[in-house]
Amino acid sequence: MRKRSLIPILYIAFLLLPIYWLVAMSFKTTGEILSGFSLFPQTFTLQNYIVIFTDPTWYWGYINSILYVSLNTVISVTVALPAAYAFSRYRFLGDKQLFFWLLTNRMAPAAVFALPFFQLYSSVGLFDTHLAVALAHCLFNIPLAVWILEGFMGGVPKELDETAYVDGYSFPRFFVTIFLPTIKAGVGVAAFFCFMFSWVELLLAKTLTAVEAKPIAATMTKTASSAGYELGLLAAAGTLTIIPGAIVIYFVRNYIAKGFALGRV
Amino acid sequence: MKTENQKAWFFVLPVLILVAFNALVPIMTVVNYSVQETFGNNVFFWQGLDWFEQILRSDRFHAALGRQFLFTFLILIIEIPLGIIVALSMPRKGFWVPVCLVTMALPMLIPWNVVGSMWNIFTLPNIGLLGYFMNDVLGINYDMTQQPLSAWITIIVMDVWHWTSLVVLLSYAGLVSIPDAYYQAAKIDGASPWKVFRYIQLPKMKTVLTIAILLRFMDSFNIYTEPFVLTGGGPGNSTTLLSIDLVKIALGQFDLGPAAAMSLIYFAITLLVSWLFYTLMTKDDAK
Fold this sequence. Notes:
The structure holds two protein chains of two kinds.
Chain A: H1 6-26, H2 30-35, H3 47-54, H4 56-89, E1 90-91, H5 95-106, H6 110-123, H7 130-154, H8 159-166, H9 171-182, H10 184-200, H11 203-207, H12 216-226, H13 231-249, H14 256-260
Chain B: E1 3-4, H1 8-34, E2 36-38, E3 44-46, H2 50-57, H3 59-89, H4 96-105, H5 112-123, H6 129-137, H7 148-176, H8 180-188, H9 193-204, H10 206-221, H11 225-231, H12 242-252, H13 256-286
Antiparallel strand pairs in B: 2-3
Helix pairs in contact in B: 1-13, 2-13, 3-7, 3-10, 5-11, 7-10, 7-11, 10-13, 12-13
């Protein structure tokens, strides 16, 4: 038993090493970083974090990211709920084809869509708005939400619906007061995955924004290339991007696998 | 049994409109570019299938496609077995289960460019932890900005770091669904650990592993941000994968026709595998 637990410990150590290094770097001064190797910060400094929290171009990056990610999560889950219900309860013309087509969008390489997205959102006057990024991320998040929710709804027996109708519930009342509470774990997982994939995506978010809605990730790449070796600042900004994910993941820890399997475990 | 109801279309309509707006308009734009030539000023000339022929015959595309398949192949043969091994040795119950699940999922929640930056900082020679360890402690000459081999090892290890947990979590979900009675029966029969794995655990993990393999195939085939931030496709072109090459042609050189043709070929390969993914998954659903 002791020998067996060695493997997960080694694996977790491997996962945490680069993260430790990023966090350690964020507490170092630029001088210390460039002067050579040190395992722990010698002159512990919060300067990098102070810069981020006082410079509007930095902290607005975070606000922009959180705005479009939240907007996207709300849109994706809201429209996916009735669609997932339809897929899990009814047969209709072209249902299988539609379900598959949704999945292909989840699998499309983002690089293929970068330029046409720029032209599309420019032509409808949404370029450089939070709504543009939120809508663009719907491309892969809506299919994901539909698949995950359909997986959870499939586990709810159909008798629940029928009993409610016999008891005189109308569809909207049944859906909101009985069905939604039954699948609330699924809604949570779908929301988490939309949040996550919108949060980690950069290519489309960067293509669709310039100044007003620029995500934190794009601010970082600009710093990496233009300000030379501001490694401490870059590390601090990176560390801060890990926090939202680390907070929300605790709540869905038992459902992560189900979400990644698109609701099919 | 599902009931037939055509009105269900109204439930699906909002999804259809939003996804179609995002998928069909851009794809039609790409198709449009792929058969035309432009010299700017919105003047276009009919080009037919010339761009497709040019891309399919070009050495540059073959090289990028080759690198892409090599990358995806290495990712699969490392991450899938490693993920299964870690999942098998994870605790099944108790305090350490949520600790393992949360820390293992952490790399997947980090923005992709931060993953690139993090590994850049981690591997810098003389400054980064790994770079220092390799060069100054082990005395191995390691510099991914100079040596193609170092760059390749780094992007592979980075992806293993980033995504092996996906395989772990999925396999683990399959493993915990096995009832204790199965193991007890195996014990009575005196089955070896290998036999337990081969005849009890592996069949139970089949569905989740299929999903894991195909998700890892798709995502590593479409990878862009992490290697772009880490190596920028270099040194030279040694780590220029398909997506990186595509963005170079489209946004770097602004060769819209060839880039569009390449996008469609790329997407076709992706679709082919998606179809495989879907048929394999629904085959199990139907049983």
